[in-house]
Amino acid sequence: MATYEYAFPAIRGVQAGRVFFVSMCPLKLLPKLFVWVDDDLPVELRAQRTLNKGRVPEMVRYIEDNPTSYTFSAITASVDAQVTFSPYGGAEHGAVNGVLRVPMDGRFIINDGQHRRAAIEQVLKSNPALGDETIAVVFFIDKGLDRCQQMFADLNRHAVRASKSLGVLYDHRDPLAAVTREVVSKSPVFRTFVEMEATSLPKASRRLFTLSAIHGAHEELFKGVGTLDHARMTELALAFWERIDSQFPEWREVRHRQMRSPDVRSDFIHSHGIVLTALGRIGNRLLRENPDPASWAIDIDKLGSLDWSRTNSRLWEGRAIVGGRVSKATSNVMLTTAAIRAHLGMALEPDEQRAEDAYRKERRT
């Protein structure tokens, strides 16, 4: 009886003494070949994590918004079948290009990429034209459940998500990321004193800020202010940070080499991400009330009279500092912003007022 097969043009390779294959799969075949059936099995009998359906819509939007520039890495799968590989031009020693043949009754198990597969399946319903595009698939020969589970563990053991700073640096789709990069490159407040890759600074770093912290402040600064083009956002951000800088002599002393960045970070909190975010929230109020930077001086110029030293535990402990360490938790951002607004004589936002009420109630008990 004839055996029906899938035939994949493939490249043969070897890892840890085991043969594997790399091929290209049309997107329209992906949902048919890789059927997701493990959700109802106990976790110990699965070769993958449970599909997180909350991640799929975000990936779908990514493809739909970028149909001519999306990028997906290879899917990794195990093949539970007796496969054959026929090298092009014969089976001479060392041939790596050929055709991988897999019986149609074989089973494909995704070791890495089930969310990509689910997103592609959903996108094809609204944009079937993408079905003829391809994605790389790495096939390993299945050696049982234990081997598949071990592969999943190994594939994810050393997976490291890119830092937020690096994401901002390399993201050319996000308009706000572009604004942040331009502000950092043009502003004398930040130029040469921003860590562009990591989201935290080593103790001895000569940098004073991180790119991710500035971007986070910009997210708060421009939240709900309406449609602004790139040039206007950049102009406003530059003016905002120039005004802020006038209130922090330590920032200027670092630039003039009169103070060291590590000393400023260890002695004061105003260069830490939590304060930059809080300042962004305060700037947002000013921007919504009056988009003219000249009008901000009345409020911003009171910042310099606030004691920003970390030794001011009466004010900052429990707000920006928890147990002697600066905290970036959302509640701490709210409490830090509330303290700064109170010093400036500004009314608190509702979420800040709730955090402040809870903080004061806890301190009374």
UniProtKB/TrEMBL annotation:
Domain of life: Bacteria
Pfam families: DndB
Organism ancestry: Bacteria, Bacillati, Actinomycetota, Actinomycetes, Catenulisporales
Organism: Actinocrinis puniceicyclus
Protein name: DNA sulfur modification protein DndB
